[in-house]
């Protein structure tokens, strides 16, 4: 397949990628394998460390007791990468280093074998560390990670860091922090982190021209609108469900730039995000970090109780905080997730339906998050035998997914199968 992207210097942004031909919405622009990647610590027991597929039961590496695999085939396929890491993990057992330390170590192992590296539009050495832009606290954090990285690598080969040309562990960790991508599963849940050097050239826009999705650990870059020749290709580094100031703060803290995109310049979504009585939605905003910890820890009953309490109407019939308020939407989403995990299907559907209107408002362009939310609701409608509603919701999801995922993606195939089941059941009624 001819390369549809080219590197260029973007005024005011530095390096970037642009289309070298006309690209249509839904077109696959680029497919990339990582220079290095690792499964996130929080998912290490349920995600295969080779193919990155999710399973409840996996084989465990008999030596380090950390890495897990679907089967012997996946284990053998991963061994060339894991054999060095295995010694490092074993030396620190039962401690497990952070994701950034494990990823940095895997990058070093790859840099020591240049013959195994494929040509890229952007080399690892060219990546920006942004160390000069970081505050003292962040640099101190990187220094601590550097000490952990060197301790982690010591068992495998004491002088391994000296064997990598022009290597500075703090600079490497800074590059990892600024340039790695979150690897997500079909439902956009984080399962790992990886470095994809060519894709690090992509600049940010809060309303981008492309989205990135994963099949296992393979990254796919797909256009969500038509792109003209020489037009810059962009992605969004962060989620859109954040007010302008919060997006700007996150981008500055993690990526060290101030976004000047149209959505940030106009702050057009902020009135919708902040709709309702401030005194009523402030407790929701303040509760979200605590609720997300409950979600991460799987405390579903407690999570649902707290969400239900926050969402319960107070006083009159008209809620003080409309469903479109971004903090109420987040709490509703968390309640939706809790009900699904608690198998409370009717309540889950009620919460899920409340999110669809706001999702349409916040994702006016084709966006995978909107498609997946529609698909989750449709599965509940189908399970509860609301067949006409289910087929309608599935069709809405497909209209988005055929652009954001493409018809070859495994999730699109699942959606089509679900729609066929639904239509067949309707015909039998």
From TrEMBL:
Looking at the UniProt record for this protein, which Gene Ontology cellular component terms does it annotate, in alphabetical order? nucleus
Query: Which molecular-function annotation in GO is an example for this chain?
Result: histone H3K4 trimethyltransferase activity
Q: Which Gene3D superfamilies match?
A: 1.10.220.160, 1.25.40.970, 6.10.140.2220, SET domain (2.170.270.10), Tetratricopeptide repeat domain (1.25.40.10)
Record keywords: Transferase included? yes
InterPro entries under this entry?
H3K4_H4K5_MeTrfase (IPR050869), SET_dom (IPR001214), SET_dom_sf (IPR046341), TPR-like_helical_dom_sf (IPR011990), Znf_MYND (IPR002893)
Chain segments annotated as coiled-coil in the UniProt record: none
Q: Which reaction does this chain catalyze? A: L-lysyl(4)-[histone H3] + 3 S-adenosyl-L-methionine = N(6),N(6),N(6)-trimethyl-L-lysyl(4)-[histone H3] + 3 S-adenosyl-L-homocysteine + 3 H(+)
Q: Which residue ranges does the record assign to the SET domain? A: 3-238
| Enzyme Commission numbers on file | 2.1.1.354
SMART domains noted in UniProt: SET
Q: Which UniProt keywords apply?
A: Metal-binding, Methyltransferase, S-adenosyl-L-methionine, Transferase, Zinc, Zinc-finger
Q: Does the keyword rRNA processing apply?
A: no
Q: Where is the MYND-type domain?
A: 48-86
One Pfam family name from the record? zf-MYND
Write out the GO biological process terms.
methylation
Matching PANTHER family:
HISTONE-LYSINE N-METHYLTRANSFERASE SMYD, HISTONE-LYSINE N-METHYLTRANSFERASE SMYD3
Q: What is this protein called?
A: [histone H3]-lysine(4) N-trimethyltransferase
């Amino acid at each position: 397949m001819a390369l549809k992207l080219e590197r260029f210097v973007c005024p005011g942004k530095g390096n970037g990628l642009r289309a070298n031909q006309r690209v249509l919405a839904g077109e696959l622009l680029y497919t990339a394998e990582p220079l290095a990647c690792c499964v996130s610590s929080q998912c290490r027991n349920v995600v295969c460390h080779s193919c990155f597929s999710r399973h409840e039961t996996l084989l465990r590496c008999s030596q380090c007791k950390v890495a897990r695999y679907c089967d012997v085939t996946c284990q053998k396929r991963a061994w060339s990468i894991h054999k060095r890491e295995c010694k490092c993990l074993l030396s620190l057992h039962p401690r497990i280093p952070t994701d950034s330390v494990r990823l940095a170590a895997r990058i070093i192992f790859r840099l020591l074998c240049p013959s195994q590296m494929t040509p890229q539009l952007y080399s690892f050495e060219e990546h920006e560390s942004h160390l000069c832009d970081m505050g003292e606290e962040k640099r101190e954090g990187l220094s601590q990670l550097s000490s952990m990285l060197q301790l982690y690598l010591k068992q495998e080969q004491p002088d391994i860091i000296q064997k990598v040309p022009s290597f500075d562990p703090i600079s490497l960790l800074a590059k990892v922090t600024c340039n790695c991508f979150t690897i997500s599963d079909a439902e956009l849940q984080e399962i790992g982190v990886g470095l994809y050097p060519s894709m690090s050239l992509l600049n940010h826009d809060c309303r981008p021209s492309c989205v990135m999705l994963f099949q296992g650990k393979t990254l796919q870059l797909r256009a969500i609108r038509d792109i003209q020749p020489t037009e810059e290709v962009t992605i969004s580094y962060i989620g859109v469900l954040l007010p302008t100031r919060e997006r700007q703060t996150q981008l500055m803290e993690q990526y060290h730039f101030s976004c000047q995109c149209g959505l940030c310049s106009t702050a057009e979504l902020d009135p919708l995000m902040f709709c309702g009585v401030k005194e009523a939605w402030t407790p929701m905003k303040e509760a979200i970090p605590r609720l997300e910890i409950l979600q991460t820890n799987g405390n579903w009953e407690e999570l649902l109780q707290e969400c239900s309490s926050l969402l319960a109407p107070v006083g009159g019939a008209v809620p003080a905080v409309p469903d479109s308020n971004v903090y109420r939407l987040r709490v509703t989403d968390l309640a939706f997730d809790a009900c699904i995990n608690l198998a409370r299907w009717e309540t889950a559907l009620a919460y899920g339906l409340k999110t669809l209107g706001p999702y349409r408002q916040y994702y006016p362009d084709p966006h995978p998050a909107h498609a997946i939310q529609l698909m989750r609701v449709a599965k509940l409608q189908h399970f509860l035998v609301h067949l006409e509603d289910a087929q309608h919701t599935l069709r809405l999801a497909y209209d988005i997914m055929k652009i954001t995922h493409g018809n070859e993606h495994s999730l699109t195939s699942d959606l089509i199968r679900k729609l066929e089941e639904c239509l067949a059941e309707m015909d039998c009624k």
